[in-house]
Design goal:
Layout: E1 2-6, H1 9-19, E2 24-32, E3 40-47, E4 51-55, H2 57-60, H3 65-71, E5 77-80, H4 84-94, E6 101-103, H5 104-109, H6 119-127, H7 147-173, H8 181-187, H9 213-232, H10 236-239, H11 242-251, H12 256-260, H13 267-285, H14 304-323, H15 328-331, H16 334-342, H17 352-366, E7 370-375, E8 378-383
Parallel strand pairs: 1-4, 2-5, 5-6
Antiparallel strand pairs: 2-3, 3-4, 7-8
Length: 387
């Protein structure tokens, strides 16, 4: 394996020539986001199984273009593990995704490795290699990078390529590669990385303590915070912490003095944004009742016979999971089974590969078309006897 640290344009051009025409590239990124809304890219690692490199975007700057052309080359498959945060960087910085792609995390779930297995654990389980974890909290923006950091970063793609080959082969043997299409489509949907600021209130901790008019104020305040955090590229909590927002909505201050007295409201915020926030709060507080947001009502508790049916489906799910050599948790949660029993439409069991593997058989069980049969102490799922 040829290994490189690429921090100048000539070395980058040479790397691109070396990687051009690869069938696949294992890709990973290192970033920081403690002091920003968006992740700040600090390093891109790449490997094609013969060459592995750490590309330094902080030193290359605008000279990164040839490498980006390689990553966006539609004839080369890009392999990630738990790709969502990496893809957020590509979407925010360049407005594109490195397609086509393959994510080893959801792929591993289809081989019984659990729903969200971490990279190091998967490498150990599949390849028998123990990776060091001592650089997982390093400041990747600091330069120069030391040998331990470079080793850690390179290992993230060297073994990723090997994982991909093993996992893809196993999935192909079991005819499960096509099962991943829905997962990968969600990963590369722009909406995944552009949440609506008007919905930001639904992610505020403590909102369950607010009601009616207070929720209307929270929705306006959370939308302001989300929009401002994006525009200024600052962490949300640097503008207003969740608990402070909830307290503002509880008290509904009517003047600057009242706003300033709320614990956690910074003097600088009151000085710069106080008048604007008061106007925003007052406008939201006067919205008519029909315009108030509302939490999605928790479904009523299941009736005893419905709870029994969830238990019945749980047993069937275990059988289906064993049949397909998957963990039951990778297919459905207890909450998913409750949704199925209630007949709710937004049930993950009725989407993608889960529908074919378990959703449809469990629905048949609910309709009485299938049944669990105990024979000799062993359960099996069989067509119901209509006679």
């Amino acid at each position: 394996m040829q290994e490189h640290l690429i921090d100048n344009p000539d070395a980058l051009q040479a790397l691109c020539r070396e990687l051009a025409g690869s069938e696949w590239l294992a890709v990973d990124t290192e970033f920081i986001r403690e002091r920003s809304y968006y992740p700040r890219l600090c390093l891109i690692q790449v490997s094609n199984g013969e060459t592995a490199a750490c590309v330094d975007p902080l030193t290359l700057g605008d000279e990164l273009a040839p490498f980006l052309d390689l990553l966006f080359d539609g004839s080369i498959l890009k392999v990630f593990h738990a790709a969502r945060q990496d893809l957020e960087i590509f979407w925010h910085d360049w407005g594109r995704f490195p397609l086509p792609l393959f994510d080893t995390q959801p792929a591993a779930a289809l081989l019984g490795h659990g729903d969200q297995i971490g990279y190091a654990n998967l490498v150990k389980r599949v390849l028998g290699v123990e990776l060091p974890k001592d650089q997982s909290r390093t400041d990747w923006s600091a330069r120069p990078l030391n040998d331990e950091q470079i080793r850690y970063a390179l290992d993230d793609v060297i073994y990723l390529g090997q994982l991909y080959l093993e996992i893809r082969g196993s999935l192909s043997d079991r005819e499960r590669l096509q099962w991943l299409a829905a997962d990968f489509a969600t990963l590369t949907a722009p909406a995944t990385y552009e949440p609506d600021p008007r919905e930001a209130w639904k992610r505020v901790k403590g909102r369950q303590h607010l009601r009616g008019r207070q929720l209307a104020v929270l929705a306006a305040l959370a939308e302001w915070r989300e929009t401002e955090a994006r525009a200024r590229d600052l962490p949300r909590k640097w503008l207003l912490k969740d608990d402070v927002m909830v307290e503002i909505c509880r008290r509904l201050p009517r003047n600057i003095e009242a706003l300033a007295k709320i614990r956690g409201v910074e003097a600088g915020l009151v000085r710069k944004e106080g008048k604007h926030l008061l106007a925003l709060l007052q406008k939201a507080a006067t919205l008519p009742r029909e315009a108030w947001p509302s939490e999605k009502r928790r479904p009523s508790p299941l009736a005893p016979e419905q709870e029994a049916m969830v238990d019945y489906l749980t047993a069937a799910l275990r059988l289906l999971a064993a049949e397909h050599q998957l963990s039951p948790q990778a297919i459905a949660t207890h909450k998913d089974l409750q949704k199925l029993v209630r007949g709710e439409e937004d049930c993950p069991l009725l989407e993608g590969w889960r529908r074919a593997v378990a959703g449809e058989p469990l629905q048949a069980l609910l309709r009485g078309e299938q049944q669990l049969v105990n024979k000799g102490g062993r359960l099996s799922l069989q067509t119901a006897n209509r006679g």
